[in-house]
Write a sequence for this structure.
């Protein structure tokens, strides 16, 4: 190798100087930097665009709904048109009832199914279940609604809250199962083997070691599913049906925020319109509060497998 | 005696566990009972010698673990072919051999971990104190509590504290010990692995905060907490630094006082330092088993000699 010339500072080996002259090398480097900056900028713009709809929706909701967001909104029943001071207390309670019923049915079944899918990956039952779960995830909610009406409402003769809960649970189960399966698969095999080598039975390994390590991810999956069903309207049209009056009975039709918003938004009354905006805001706030409570409650003291 | 921990046909019931330092008579099987309240006397530390303490070691009359015509399969391919070996009590037996020779598979067959893998199959017998652990009515989880295992990479349970990690195996037996008793057991296990002084102030902290060597010693303590009869170590120091390796080797050397130890290692020097007997495996077959100094100085088989002189590996 020849000694570097005094003029050039980081002199590359002499053999490259015939391939790329110094000026072209500098130009290429500048071009690479420019391309890098443009791509980074594009990716950043894409990130901003992705969050923009959410930000716009929240902003609009706040702007339109906060005017109606007074104390009577949370404590009063819907009032007839023309009377002021109506509220959505029954709808808020109804939504909570429906979410609760759906979670009680859907979460254990979904998490259990996800655990099975992760632990017995190659078996025929697992493959069939996984395929069907993926299909069901894409099922239009209106189809679920009329199906639920056919088997849950029609034989009984009346609409009911539990029918709504079951319909929502049926939509929740495939989603929870798939996300649970993906999360449980991230738990390393070595952890399972360590538990088995200690004399843990298979079920105990799954429940105490695998599931505990995957808790944060499973909770995230559950919350995403809850957020989705909290806003589903179509299944509720045919099962819970909505209720103008106060009802906490599972066997009666029950009001729900999405149904109430739907009814109010279609009406020609301004007062009801602004109440619909407020209802939408309350729905989103409800989901946020449920998420926060669930996160804090299941926050482990220690690291999980993903940390 | 906790019924859920013993295999289906319990060995000769001994009314009281003997003290640890007493010599064992052939045939007597004291099943370790962690519910026993009398503390096991900690033996005085011996002088560290560079050669194992029993240079002319021969198996005693009643080997702890006896492998007879063992074949292990992954689907159709045979990983361990017709291996028969005696693993004597109070001895450290090392299994050495090149990569892929089946030594880890053989080790995993000794506590029935091999069958947890898909398409895995075992034929043959492994006799623990005279009873076949692959017998028809044997409770697999009980076997694994009598034959403990430590893996190559440290695997502390990340969601549990250090104390709960060590006590993890205690939760599975029928009668869970009291909190005070559990603390005693945890302390004893941590003292045996020389970890107590380092972690006694942070037993409630997460186990993943420890260094690699500490985590591996924690895993050994976790395996020792239920006082198994046999401890299997699958390349325990492969992922550790030299200081931690030395500490683990000293620990293995001391464990021979209380139990049978089988260690798989790809490091011949480690086998020479730590073990009393060494078995050499090649391509799934057991080529030779002999006292360590004999195997490394005057091996009988030419393949053994080729391996230990470094002609292949």
């Amino acid at each position: 190798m020849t000694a570097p010339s005094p003029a050039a500072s980081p002199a590359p080996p002499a053999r490259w100087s015939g391939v790329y002259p110094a000026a072209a090398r500098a130009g290429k480097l500048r071009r690479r930097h420019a391309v890098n900056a443009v791509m980074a900028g594009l990716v950043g713009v894409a990130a901003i665009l992705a969050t923009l709809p959410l930000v716009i929706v929240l902003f609009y909701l706040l702007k339109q709904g906060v005017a109606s967001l007074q104390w009577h909104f949370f404590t009063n029943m819907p009032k007839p048109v023309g009377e002021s001071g109506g509220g959505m207390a029954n709808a808020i309670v109804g939504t909570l009832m429906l979410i609760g019923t759906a979670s009680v049915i859907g979460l254990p079944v979904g998490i259990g199914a996800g655990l099975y899918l992760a632990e017995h990956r190659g078996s025929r039952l697992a493959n069939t279940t996984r395929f069907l779960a993926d299909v069901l995830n894409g099922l239009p909610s209106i189809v679920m609604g009329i199906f639920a009406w056919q088997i849950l409402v029609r034989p009984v003769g009346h609409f009911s809250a539990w029918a709504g809960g079951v319909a929502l649970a049926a939509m929740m189960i495939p989603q929870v199962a798939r996300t649970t399966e993906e999360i449980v698969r991230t738990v390393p095999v070595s952890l399972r083997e360590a538990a088995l080598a200690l004399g843990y039975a298979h079920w105990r390994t799954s429940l105490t070691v695998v599931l505990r390590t995957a808790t944060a991810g499973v909770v995230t999956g559950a919350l995403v599913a809850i957020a989705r069903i909290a806003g589903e309207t179509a299944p509720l049209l045919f099962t819970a049906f909505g209720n103008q009056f106060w009802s906490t009975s599972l066997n009666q039709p029950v009001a729900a925020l999405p149904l109430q918003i739907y009814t109010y938004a279609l009406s020609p009354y301004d007062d009801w319109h602004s109440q619909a905006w407020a209802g939408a805001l309350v729905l989103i706030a409800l989901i946020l509060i449920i998420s926060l409570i669930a996160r804090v409650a299941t926050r482990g003291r220690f690291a999980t497998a993903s940390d | 005696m906790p019924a859920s921990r013993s295999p289906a046909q319990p060995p000769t019931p001994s009314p009281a566990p003997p003290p640890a330092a007493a010599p064992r008579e052939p045939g007597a099987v004291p099943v370790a009972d962690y519910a026993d309240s009398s503390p096991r006397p900690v033996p005085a530390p011996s002088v560290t010698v560079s050669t194992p303490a029993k240079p002319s070691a021969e198996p005693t009359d009643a080997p702890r673990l006896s492998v007879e015509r063992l074949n292990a399969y992954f689907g159709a391919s045979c990983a361990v072919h017709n291996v028969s070996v005696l693993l004597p009590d109070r001895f450290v037996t090392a299994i050495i051999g090149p990569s892929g020779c089946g030594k880890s598979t053989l080790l995993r067959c000794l506590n029935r971990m091999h069958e947890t893998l898909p398409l895995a199959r075992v034929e043959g017998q492994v006799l623990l104190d005279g009873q076949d652990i692959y017998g028809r009515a044997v409770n697999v989880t009980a076997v694994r509590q009598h034959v403990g295992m430590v893996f190559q990479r440290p695997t502390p349970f990340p969601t549990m504290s250090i104390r709960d990690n060590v006590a993890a195996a205690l939760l599975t037996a029928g009668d869970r010990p009291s909190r005070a008793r559990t603390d005693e057991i945890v302390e004893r296990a941590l003292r045996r692995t020389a970890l107590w002084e380092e972690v006694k102030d942070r037993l409630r902290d997460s186990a993943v905060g420890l260094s690699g060597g500490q985590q591996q010693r924690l895993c050994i303590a976790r395996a020792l907490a239920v006082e198994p009869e046999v401890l299997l170590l699958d390349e325990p120091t492969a992922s550790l630094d030299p200081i931690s390796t030395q500490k683990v080797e000293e620990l293995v050397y001391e464990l021979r006082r209380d139990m049978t130890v089988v260690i798989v290692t790809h490091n011949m020097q480690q086998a020479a330092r730590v073990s009393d007997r060494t078995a050499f495996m090649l391509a799934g077959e057991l080529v030779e088993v002999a006292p360590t100094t004999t195997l490394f100085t005057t091996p009988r088989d030419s393949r053994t000699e080729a391996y230990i002189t470094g002609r292949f590996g």
Q: What stands out?
A: Residues 111 and 312 of chain B are 30 Å apart (CA to CA). The beta strands of chain B are 65-74, 77-87, 92-96, 120-128, 131-132, 147-150, 230-234, 260-264, 277-282, 285-291.
